Amino acid sequence: MALRITNTKYYPKYHIASPGGWINDPNGFCYYKGEYHLFYQYHPHTAQWGPMHWGHVVSEDLIHWNHLPIALAPTEDYDRNGCFSGSAIENDGKLYLVYTGHRDTPEIPEGFRQTQNIAISEDGVHFAKIPENPVAVAPEDEQIHVGDFRDPKVWKNEENDKYYMVVGSRTPDRLTGQIVLFESDDLLKWDYKNIMARAEGNEGFMWECPNFANIEGHDILIISPQGIKRELNKYMNVFQSGYFMGRVDYEKGIYIHGKFELLDYGFDFYAPQITEAPDGRTLMIGWADMWYNIMPEQEDGWAGMMSVPREIHVKNGKVITTPVKELEKLRTAEISYEDKSFYKPMKFDGVSGDSGELVLEIDLTETKEFEIYLRASKDKTQKTVLSYNKALELFKFNRDDAGAGGDGERECPVPAADKMKLQIFLDRSLVEIFINDGEKVMTSRIYPRADSTDIIFVPKDGAFKIDSLKFYELGVGIPQPVID
Hints:
Blueprint: E1 21-32, E2 35-43, E3 53-59, E4 66-72, E5 83-91, E6 94-104, E7 112-121, E8 128-129, E9 149-157, E10 162-170, E11 177-184, E12 190-198, E13 206-215, E14 218-226, E15 242-249, E16 254-257, E17 261-262, E18 270-276, E19 282-287, E20 302-303, E21 310-315, E22 318-323, E23 331-342, E24 355-363, E25 367-376, E26 384-389, E27 394-398, E28 409-413, E29 419-427, E30 430-435, E31 440-445, E32 454-462, E33 464-474
Parallel strand pairs: 1-20
Antiparallel strand pairs: 1-2, 2-3, 3-4, 5-6, 6-7, 7-8, 9-10, 10-11, 11-12, 13-14, 14-15, 15-16, 15-17, 18-19, 19-21, 21-22, 23-33, 24-29, 24-33, 25-26, 25-32, 26-27, 27-28, 29-30, 30-31
């Protein structure tokens, strides 16, 4: 039985969150029999990480989600200590979950084994693990750590009618992250192909949660590397999430690519999963938390949530991510202002709350620096501060005074221009900021008091000129816990 939630003060209205207990990485994001399915790493019995299960939600529209029964639980010897992350793929009308089985094995030097396994469903709800498991193990004669070998992503290459699986891994000395490639004709028998890509320089000692897709003619490999060292004000999270852009040589089983780029510059975004929508869009959703961060909601019987679903595109040789267009259907009320210019801090009637969507078009011709306070208290002692310095070309997110969670600051480079567009999603304990139509994104958890609801616009150097301001109230997208 899942843990009961005792307080909803931080619980989201429209982001996917735990029905009670701990969640982390999204898994198995897919479209099957007319519905989007999202699975996630789940420990239903406590609000702390524990033996992993696969939780499960479904949606017809990407915005209204319903909880389904647990899809996978540790039941076999090969997954006795956890059903770790993986992906999903449809074949012959059946839904295949491909996941990592984790087994503590103290008799070997590594202390644990991780293998890739399959469970199949004909209805998308009930899954049976196949007798052939495990279907992929780390080849011991290759430069692959036999323990850290997890998070399979599976896809079909239509050009040669074969299935491919990438698995996150590291070298046996545990110093270098890498991706391992397998090949199959039928999804059941998998052959080792090659080490597809490997870290070079400051790219991490373990590559987790690989995802792969061809997006607008580019082979995109998404990874969540552990061990990237901080470079000034970059790579400040304990772990990162980002991508390479390149080309897969399926014959040789290698990936030729450019440099590693971040997907999100905030405090809390990890292990993103991608899928293809029926209309051809590539969609992505990530865990809107980070390992070892403070999570005050654990005191209330739950922990962890997901980002809004995002669309992935390529623009000027870079990946950009935007909130899915379906989110517009959540809008229930609109407040709008145009052509506002001011030199003192300003609040606008109706623009406040603990959740909602704020869309701004800002004229920077006379504005050298500005701040925006989100979730501010009446005396401004509690606030989340967004700021932009045009001369430094830096956008910052500061949560030193944001509430009960962790403090600190994150920043991302945003080139100076005459205009800036911001699309900001607030949902009680989460902020997602899309800058200039997704050229940069910042996702961060915050934990303010319930009465900290003001939004304040603060000029710092020059006039704060707003061409357009729209604030939308948003409806409920995830079932709200019932508190006795």
